Amino acid sequence: MAMQTADRSVRMERAFDRMTDAYPLQPGTRSFTAAGVYDKVGLLVVLSLVTGTYSYFANNTALMFLGFIGGLVLSLIGIFRPATAKIVAPLYALAEGLALGGITAYYAVGHSSIVPMAVIFTGGIFLGALVIFRSGLVKVTHKFVSMTLMASVGFILVLLANMLGLNFPGLGGSSGLAILGVFGVAIGVMYLFIDFNYVQVGEQRRLPADGEWYGALMLMMSLVMVYINVLRILGRRR
Fold first, then answer.
1. 130 within some domain
2. How does pLDDT run across 148-169, given as a tens digit for each residue?
3. Full 3-state SS string of 66-128
4. How many domains does the chain have?
């Protein structure tokens, strides 16, 4: 039976029902908690820092691309097969660490202070978004999710166009990089709100503890997006 609220559409309720089906509560199993999700996010961050530190000092392009490809494949598996998140999430964190270490090394050439600044800013954005969500200022509705997805598609298309040399007016040079970074951070924060909503609903529906891994995976993916775009902003002079 769907748990109807005034802020969620029928379509969103059906999505949450499917998530409940993916994680059926068995007798004697521990139920889903927000604290459990955030503990797992902390573990994933530590794993990514381990491989990220190695990749940063190795400064190997092949290693960076291996991490990106591995992270992409693992994220898709985790998104479409939520029950695999317990295995996929740690592997995703390790893979993304390799990718982020490489890209951080690129932006840090001549600007080593970027590294701690990017980490601190990303952590601050995460905590700020969590406070805003818990204050009730943001309501995650079906329209909000749709807008986030549309913004993501547009952002990806602009990035692909830039890679192909098709520069949009105002998006060239260092200022354009900063603008793209700001939009990327904004979209990443929107995804954080969606992830926080999942955590809230998962706790309300008393999903089993395994569902915490899916929430942690989604939050980690959003943090990766925020971090990369923070690097774009801070490293605009690179």
1. yes
2. 999 999 988 888 877 776 666 6
3. HHHHHHHHHHHHHHHCHHHHHHHHHHHHHHHHHHHHHHHHHHHCCCCCHHHHHHHHHHHHHHH
4. 1
Tell the residue number behind the tokens 């797992």, with chain if given. Answer: 40
What are the phi and psi torsion angles at 205 (to 5°)? Answer: -85, -5
DSSP character at residue 60: -
In terms of Cα–Cα distance, which of 95, 102, 91, 93 is closest to 58? 102
Cα-to-chain-centroid distance, residue 127: 14
* Residue 40: closest CA among 238, 217, 227, 223: 217
Q: Which residues contact 34 (CB under 8 A, 6 or more apart)?
A: 199, 200, 203
Please indicate, yes or no, if residue 10 is contained in any of the structural domains.
Answer: no
Q: What does the alpha-carbon distance between residue 212 and residue 4 come to, in Å, rounded to a whole number? A: 22
Identify the domain containing residue 140 by its residue range: 30-234
pTM for the whole structure: 0.86
Q: How far apart are CA 108 and CA 30, in angstroms?
A: 43
Q: Is residue 24 part of a domain?
A: no
Residue pLDDT, tens place only, 26-85: 666 788 899 999 999 999 999 999 999 999 999 889 999 999 999 999 999 998 888 899
The reply to whether 22 falls in a domain is no
| E-strand stretches of the chain | none
Q: Which residue has the tokens 């996010």?
A: 41
How far is C-alpha 115 from the geometric centre of its chain's CA atoms? 19
